[in-house]
Amino acid sequence: MTKRRRFLAAFALGLAFVTVSGCGKAPASKVINVAVTPASPPNLFEENGQTKGLDYDLFDGYCKARGCTLNITAYDFQGMLGAVVSRKADVAFSGISITEPRKQVMDFSKPYMDNDWDLVSMKSRNIKLANLDTLKNYSIGIARGTAYTDFIKTELEPKGIYKVDQLKLYPTNSEALTDLQNGQVDLVFLDGTVASVYRKKLPIQDSYVFEGIDRLGFAFPKGSQLRVDFDKYLDELGPEKRQAIIDKWMK
Amino acid sequence: MSFIEILQILLQGAGYTLLITFSCAATALVVGLAIAMARELGGAWISAVLSAWVYVFRGVPMLVLLFVVFFGLPGIGLDVPPLLAMMLSLGFISGAYLSEVFRGALAAINPNEVLAAQAMGFTRFETLRLIKLPQMLRFSVPGMINELTTVLKYSPFAYTVGLPEITKQAMALVATTMRGIEIYVAIGLIYFAIYRLLLSFVRLIEKRYAVPGFAEE
Predict the structure, then answer these.
(1) A146, A238, A248, B65: most buried by Cβ count inside 10 Å?
(2) Where are the beta strands (DSSP E) in chain A?
(3) What is the pLDDT of residues A171-197, one digit of tens each?
(4) Strand A187-191 versus strand A106-108 pairing type
(5) Would you call the peptide bond into A42 cis, given omega within 30 degrees of 0 as the criterion?
(6) Is the predicted pLDDT of residue A240 greater than 60, yes or no?
(7) The CATH fold of domain B3-208
């Protein structure tokens, strides 16, 4: 009986500890809580347990300049956005597109890079779309929670080009691409950045490219002071140096 | 990268998977037992409240509850850490299921034993503690194993709230290597090994507390 009681007591204590430790928040500390999704190369990924990528380099540069440290937590894409909205994280970055619905619940930095959107297919299928007239004949796979759904809903659906209902949703790009290789889906929506990485590893090609519609930004909670300072840093960095960081990862 | 190396990288998340599974299973046991006991001892209205509770927690999708707890509660000033959020969502849902397993096990107890206990002057609490609970726990082992396994398989939801368990390792690895099939096979093997471990653990307890001559199969 005593053993069982001791176990229960330890359990209750553990529960209390977890609760209490979660409530304390250090005021004005130099530790920045970062939310990422390490499934978005080259913007953000993990290699040998290290967080790496274009976005990381940019924000790490900011942190070095301002003397702060990063406390990085990996979420899936929806979790990452949720962490910013609920202020669990001070900033999120992993190739996040700036969209109107997102702007209503979070603040974005200045766009740090333009991004094409590619509809990719297997080379063996040789699907080439000159225009969007025949798009509705193909199935399209996308990663859940990404900006494409919104784009299709507001831009393509009203014009009768493609219906959101026709989309096949996947947890991340990786699963969508696996299904593409298996022949279960005809086309997959990818960021230009992501596509540049996967083209080296998979026999895929661009079937159609949407240009100049997508810009990437760092996401911050509403009214974030950190965002103001980070925008200042992007200005200090200047377009040449920023482009050099982008080129380092894109080539 | 060899299959062994893939396994090694994935195993870095195994500690978290085990931690999540055990904390949520422990929460589920406490919640399930509390509900089962309160139903036995409480009156009609407690029973009605608990039935509503179980109805809600069995019906609400895991991800919805997790989002409400982890991302919603900070809105009213309650900052819930990830592991506690998992315990309050997965643990509570699983607890609701377990309480039903316990209810079934209680119904399987010979009513004559309860009558005999009452005739001997046992209080309701004594009847529960000495006659019903010991039998109920033994009867519910198969159902509990089922529920523990479910908890294990729901543990990847923890990645949504930022706990780097095995599935997170796998997704990060697939993103850079594109070797999905090998990696997901590896992850399947690891889950199977953990399941096997849980099963042996429960069997050990079952054996330790088995009453000779009672409910032998």
Answers:
(1) A146
(2) 31-36, 39-40, 44-47, 50-52, 69-74, 91-92, 106-108, 113-122, 140-143, 168-170, 187-191, 204-216, 219-221
(3) 888 889 989 999 999 999 998 888 888
(4) unpaired
(5) yes
(6) yes
(7) MetI-like fold (1.10.3720)
Distance (Å) from the alpha carbon of B11 to chain A's nearest alpha carbon: 12
Average pLDDT, chain B: 92
Q: Are A104 and A64 spatial neighbours (Cβ–Cβ below 8 Å)? A: no
Q: Where are the domains of chain A?
A: 31-112+217-250, 115-214
8 A C-beta contact, residue A27 and residue A33: no
B15 in reach of chain A (CB within 8 A): no
**Are both A31-112+217-250 and A115-214 of the same fold?**
yes
CA distances from A9 to A5, A12, A13, B13, B36 (A): 6, 5, 6, 28, 20
Check A74 against B175: CB less than 8 A apart: no
Q: What is the least distance, in Å, from the CA of A23 to any CA of chain B? A: 6
> Does the beta carbon of B171 lie under 8 angstroms from any beta carbon of chain A?
yes
Predicted structure pTM score: 0.78
Whole-angstrom Cα distance, residue A193 to residue A24?
A: 39
Interface test with A, best of B11, B23, B71 (most A CBs within 10 A): B71
